[in-house]
Amino acid sequence: MRIGILSDTHDRPAAMKAAIELLVARGSEFFIHCGDLGSERILDHLAGLPSAFVWGNNDFDRAELQRYAQKLGIACHGTFADLELGGKRFAVLHGDDFRLRQRVLAEQRHDYLLLGHTHVRLDQRVGIIRCINPGALYRAAEKTVATLDTATDQLDFHVVAGL
């Protein structure tokens, strides 16, 4: 399964649109947003796509965002998601809760930890867990997203051009 990973859009719908188009073109079958969506306008670009997201520290109107996500059929997992996709187990969080991140890493129960928050892309192993930050679509020198193939463990970062 090919997973499209993005984070930190901070209410930039043009960036989100370009990112989703790129991820679709790269064959993504499921989309995960690692938080700091910013508004309902960001969720509009996930409508009709198999997708999930977690809250970021800048997602302020969570009740309204959650209602809207439910209306669109997008899974909102609060501050932490535990997903099984393509035979692999994913922990998804924003990255601003240091204790939660450390707990996930200490437990070593997941194949992948997806997170955002720093606006810096990351690909690092901690024990059996591969930690991936796709970068950001706002306040980053290069606006990036990532694709992960669960069958091959191939991770690719993609620059979202024209932003």
Structural account:
The strands form 2 sheets. This protein has a 6-stranded mixed β-sheet, with helices on one face. The protein has a 5-stranded mixed β-sheet with strand order 5-6-7-9-8, with no helix packed on it. It is α/β, with parallel strands linked by helices and 163 residues long. It has one domain: Metallo-dependent phosphatases (Purple Acid Phosphatase, chain A, domain 2). The longest helix is centred in the N-terminal third of the chain and has 13 residues. Helix content is 23%, strand content 30%. The chain is globular, with a radius of gyration of 14 Å. Helix 3 links the parallel strand 3 and strand 4.
CATH architecture: 4-Layer Sandwich
Q: What pattern of helices and strands is seen along the backbone?
A: EHEHEHEEEHEEEEE
CATH superfamily: Metallo-dependent phosphatases
Which parts are unreliable, with pLDDT below 50 for 5 consecutive residues or more? none
Structural class per helix/strand content? alpha/beta
Helix content percent band: 10-25%
Quote the beta fraction: 25-35%
Distance between the termini: 28 Å
For the record, the CATH class is Alpha Beta
Give the strand order of the largest sheet, numbering strands 1, 2, ... along the chain.
4-3-2-1-10-11
How many extended strands? 11
- Mean pLDDT score, rounded? 96
For the record, the count of structural domains works out to 1
| General shape | globular
Specify Rg, calculated over alpha carbons: 14 Å
The biggest beta sheet reads:
6 strands, mixed
